[in-house]
Every structure is written in structure tokens, then in C-alpha cells.
């Protein structure tokens, strides 16, 4: 169950970006201020998935100085019954431009098994820099942070893609720029704990680390409608595997028409 919530946020941060130069031409069509989406994290180590934690993502429209921004917060925690094994209380925040969806500021406050860390990153897109608590780093024009990438990724026209198309993008995390890609895997029907959906299937290239082995072992399904909400994520981890399901939502921009109603 180690680093459950960080795993979820890292998973979702790979969730989809636009092809080619479109990645730099951000524009929001899929979410609005007031949106809230709740996920359950299920952990499997002996063939049975158990409810191990939750993550909640909220969007509010605010001002950052003189700039109009979406303030996006991801709060994650392990369930109280698992706190004695590995307690997680994580909070990730990003402030992104309402028009371009580029990040201005990224905050991270992590408490994982007693390990505490805080991060504060400010992006200057004109200068091409990211300033963290550890210094100033050069970044490309279209760089995203962990949280901003999730919401930028939702604004994609999947109908333009062909199966096995790769979509590259850059993300700044842990004071480094990482070049990653997504492979589009088509569309299919999927049954989750929330219900049955028409979904878009994608597979991200993951960086090798403490949680993931790297490669394209993860599969993500997002709603095949105008919201592009992540519905399910499945991936092996260092010990066992994780399944993440969307369990609740409110104030989404469009009806969730991808949900298949019961006969």
C-alpha cells in the first residue's frame, strides 16, 4: 500500500496529451470551476482487491495575483484501517491559466509513513524556467506539472488519433524535466465499480522508480464523452497491483453520456 495516493496522482498525470504542436495550444473544453471527482484505490497482493485509500480532485476558479486561474487540488489518504501499515496524507495543488492551461504554481505537501516533504514550484513561461525550493531549472515551453498535466490531458480530441499513435509531452517533477509519451489503444466498453461505460483506452510510458517498473504496463480508461474523466486505472507495482476507480462526481461540465444505462 506504500505511496498509494502519490501513485494515483502520478498515474492520472499521464492520462493523455494532445498530438504534436497541439500540446502547446491549450484550451479548456472539458471541465469547469466547482468540479469534484472522487476515486477509490484498491490494492491487490494475494488475488483479492481491498479498499486501501481515496483521492479527491477539486477545481475552483480564482485569481493568482492578476491572473485568472483554475486552482486544482488533489487530496489523498489511506483508509484509517490501513494507517497502522502505512499512513498516507498527501495534498497536491496547481494553479493553471484558464485559457492556455499552462501551470503558474505547483505545491506538494506529502506525509507518507512519517516521511514528510514539501515542494513549491513557480513557472515562468516567458523565461523558460521553473523555480523550486532547490533552485532554478530550465524547462521547455509546453512543460506541465504533475497536477496540471491531468487537466490539460483531458482536453484532447481522441477522434483524431489512430490506434498505436504515440503522443509525447514533457513534465517537470522532482526538479527534472521528463519526456514521456502516451499510446492510444482504441475504444472499448468497460465495467467499473461505479457502472458500465463506453471508454477510451490509453497506455502511458512510465518512468522506472520506487513504485513502477517502467514501460507500458499500465492501462487507463477515460470516459468517451465531452468530460474525459478517468474511469479506471490498472497497473502492477513493486509488490502486488493497484486498481483505481472513479466512484463519485459533482459539477461536471457535461452530462456523463458515456455511462451505459441498465436495460
Please explain how this structure is put together.
The chain is mainly beta. It has one domain (4-250): YmcC-like fold (Beta Barrel). It has helices spanning 4-13, 83-86, 146-153, and strands spanning 36-44, 49-64, 67-78, 88-97, 103-112, 115-124, 129-132, 135-138, 166-173, 176-191, 196-204, 219-223, 230-236, 241-250. Strands 8-7-6-5-4-3-2-1-14-13-12-11-10-9 form a 14-stranded antiparallel β-sheet, covered by helices on one side. A hairpin with a 2-residue loop joins strand 5 (103-112) and strand 6. Helix 1 (4-13) crosses helix 3.
- Please tell me what the overall shape is: globular
Helical/strand content category? mainly beta
Task: Please tally the β strands and state the result.
Answer: 14
Overall residue-averaged pLDDT value: 83
Radius of gyration computed on alpha carbons = 17 Å
Strand order across the largest sheet: 8-7-6-5-4-3-2-1-14-13-12-11-10-9
CATH class: Mainly Beta
| CATH architectural group | Beta Barrel
H/E order of the elements? HEEEHEEEEEHEEEEEE
Number of domains: 1
Kindly identify the CATH topology. YmcC-like fold
Strand content: over 45%
Instruction: List unreliable stretches of 5+ residues.
Output: 1-7, 10-22, 207-215
- For the termini, the CA-CA separation is 37 Å
Total of helices? 3
Oligomer: single chain
Largest sheet features? 14 strands, antiparallel
Q: Roughly how much helix do the residues carry, as a percent range? A: under 10%
Amino acid at each position: 500500500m506504500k505511496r498509494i495516493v502519490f501513485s494515483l496522482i502520478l498515474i492520472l498525470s499521464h492520462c493523455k496529451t494532445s498530438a504534436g504542436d497541439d500540446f502547446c495550444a491549450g484550451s479548456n473544453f472539458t471541465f469547469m470551476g466547482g468540479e469534484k471527482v472522487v476515486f477509490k484505490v484498491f490494492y491487490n497482493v494475494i488475488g483479492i482487491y481491498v479498499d486501501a485509500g481515496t483521492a479527491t480532485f477539486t477545481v475552483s476558479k480564482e485569481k493568482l495575483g492578476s491572473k485568472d486561474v483554475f486552482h486544482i487540488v488533489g487530496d489523498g489518504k489511506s483508509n484509517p484501517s490501513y494507517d497502522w501499515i502505512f499512513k498516507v496524507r498527501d495534498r497536491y495543488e496547481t494553479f493553471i491559466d484558464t485559457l492556455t492551461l499552462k501551470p503558474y504554481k505547483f505545491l506538494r505537501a506529502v506525509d507518507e509513513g512519517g516521511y514528510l516533504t514539501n515542494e513549491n514550484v513557480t513557472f515562468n513561461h516567458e523565461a523558460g524556467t521553473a523555480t523550486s525550493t532547490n533552485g532554478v531549472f530550465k524547462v521547455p515551453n509546453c512543460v506541465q506539472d504533475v497536477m496540471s498535466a491531468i487537466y490539460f490531458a483531458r482536453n484532447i480530441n481522441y477522434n483524431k488519433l489512430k490506434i498505436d499513435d504515440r503522443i509525447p509531452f514533457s513534465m517537470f517533477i522532482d526538479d527534472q524535466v521528463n519526456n514521456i509519451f502516451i499510446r492510444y489503444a482504441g475504444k472499448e466498453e468497460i465495467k467499473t465499480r461505479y457502472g458500465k461505460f463506453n471508454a477510451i483506452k490509453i497506455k502511458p510510458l512510465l518512468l522506472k522508480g520506487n513504485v513502477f517498473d517502467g514501460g507500458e504496463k499500465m492501462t487507463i480508461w477515460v470516459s468517451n464523452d465531452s468530460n474525459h474523466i478517468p474511469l479506471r486505472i490498472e497497473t502492477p507495482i513493486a509488490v502486488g497491483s493497484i486498481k483505481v476507480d472513479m466512484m463519485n462526481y459533482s459539477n461536471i461540465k457535461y452530462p456523463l453520456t458515456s455511462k451505459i444505462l441498465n436495460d
